[in-house]
Amino acid sequence: MIITEILARNSWMYKDETALVELLPAQNLRKKYTWHQFYFASNQLANALDQNGIKKGDKVIQLMTNCLEWLPIYFGIISTGAWVVPLNFRFEADKILLCSKVAEAKAFVFGEEFIGRIEKVKDEIQKTVKFWIFTGLDDKCPDWAIPYDEFIGSAAGEAPPEVPLDIEDDAGLYFTSGTTGSPKAVLLTHRNLEHACYVENAHHGQTHEDIFLCIPPLYHTGAKMHWMGSFLVGGKCILLTGVKPKWIIEAVSKERVTIVWLLVPWAHDILIAIENNDIDLLEYELAQWRLMHAGAQPVPPSLIKNWHVYFPNQDYDTNYGLTESTGPGCVHLGVENSNRVGPIGKPGFDWECKIVDKQGNLLFGNESGELIIKGPGVMKEYYKNPEATGKALKDGWLHTGDIARYDIDGFIWLVDRKKDMIIYGGENIFPVEIENFFLGNKKIKDIAVIGVPDERLGEIPAGIISVKPGAIMSEKEILEFQEELPRYKQLKKIFFGDVPRNPTGKIEKPKLRRIYAEDKRKDIQKLLR
Predict the structure, then answer these.
(1) Which of 233, 301, 318, 411 is deepest in the core (most CB within 10 A)?
(2) Run of H or E residues at 116
């Protein structure tokens, strides 16, 4: 079933029930849409786009922060048969230009926050864009754009435009986060989006009564595809604009939330707030909170062990996925395995997984190799990038670029990314293993391990360490703490500083390498001349 048909069904079945709630705790505001309002708003935009010449196969960019209107706009674009192109709201002007050139969009929907960034590159983008549609307040609308209400105001019809959509049709371009280079355009189909609904619901058993708290950015497949399990059954979704620990706990309590997906840094921050008595759990109604699941990056086992100290009756789950797999779920731990801390799980609903060596041979036991996956969520291609597509897709299998291994029970453990691996004197070191070890120290809030060039050994492991608020830690303490690690995995350089993460929680290691490794690499190159 195409996801626009699911929305239509929900509007019919749950017409006056609440579909979406937006919480703005900083302004103490709460806004909501019923399922009928959601559907109606989506159709208004779809008809306006259709009547202004946006047709099946055209592209429409969506550059917005999370808000009540985000999902209706997304569904409105898809209802026309056009491809929706959600952009990372942290993209600077150069990345917006790059993505716009690839998409060649005919319409561009954007919020007030992006006026300055767009104006820097607008002259180049407007070669294809016919309509700049502004979603902010009318008096803030630049003279080169049209206010959203004005654009949809002349649209006729409450039903969506009559556009024949097939499950195999192309539906959207999602740009990868670019943590390992320039963003690539992932082309997803309606089949991919449909599968995301069913795989998420199969894994977490959402019912119509469940209430899902959505905090991560909606442009990313992770947040939206997790929500789709609730969407499939007409469950309520709470959109929280802000990630302060107290805001999250208050939202769960006041809105009677049952399911929350957290990024690792947010879960860490909640635990720190509890430990520091900034949050008193006895002040909140949390008994209905049945599931916390985490993903988008390796989840430290120490985090989940600490989480269960405060939430002992709560199920935990982790899901692994990529933009190229239409988000999470291709590997899935399962709530029935909540007591297992460490592995990412087994193949998800309707998915196949293998771990292979460089020659493509199957690996078993404790051998580390590349994780490859196959299933209905695998992208169609990297749009306009046949070379990258050829490397990633082989005989229907998606090569993830992630290193994994099996344990004795057949569970998959994520070891690290290929590109993050450190080669230290001929030994392969996977930073995640070291990071997870150090996160077991109660003084450490976050850590990133990168390779720093070394004249003799090629690379040496270096750690950038962020200490918890109020804690004091010396280099000597770190050296003593890491004595339990094998010598070749011990940090050879230690830096104290912030660990930058992107909106989906992934460590921005290219940024750290530029700060801590590039100067050293240049020095070595000079010596070798």
Answers:
(1) 318
(2) helix 115-125
Task: Indicate the residue among 393, 417, 441 that finishes a domain.
Answer: 417
10 Å CB burial of residue 67 (0-12, 13-18, 19+) is middle
Torsion angles phi and psi, residue 263, rounded to 5: -75, 155
Residues 444 and 456 occupy one common structural domain: yes
Number of domains comprising the chain: 3
Q: Residue 435 contacts by C-beta under 8 Å, 6 or more apart in sequence?
A: 298, 300, 447, 448, 449
From CA 285, how far away is CA 253, in angstroms rounded? 5
CA angle 275–281–284, rounded 5-degree value: 155
Q: Look-up: residue for tokens 């864009």?
A: 129
Bridge partners, residue 463, by sequence = 449, 494
Please name which of 296, 268, 261 lies closest in space to residue 251, comparing C-alpha atoms.
261
Helix (H, G, I), strand (E, B) or coil at 132: strand
Q: What residues contact 38, with CB distance under 8 A and at least 6 apart? A: 7, 10, 11, 19, 20, 71, 72, 75
156 shares its domain with 87: yes
Residues counted in the chain: 529
For the stretch 452-461, pLDDT in tens is: 887 666 788 8
Is 488 in a helix, a strand, or coil?
helix
The parent domain of residue 245 ranges over: 194-417
pTM of the predicted model as reported, rounded to 2 decimal places: 0.84
One-letter amino acid for residue 264 of the chain: V
Distances in Å between the Cα of 420 and the Cα atoms of 170, 219, 510 are: 32, 25, 9
Instruction: List Cβ neighbours of 234 (8 Å cut-off, separation of 6 or more).
Output: 10, 13, 14, 17, 19, 35, 208
253 and 345 share a domain?
Answer: yes
pLDDT tens digits, 196-245: 999 999 999 999 999 999 998 999 888 899 999 999 999 999 999 988 99
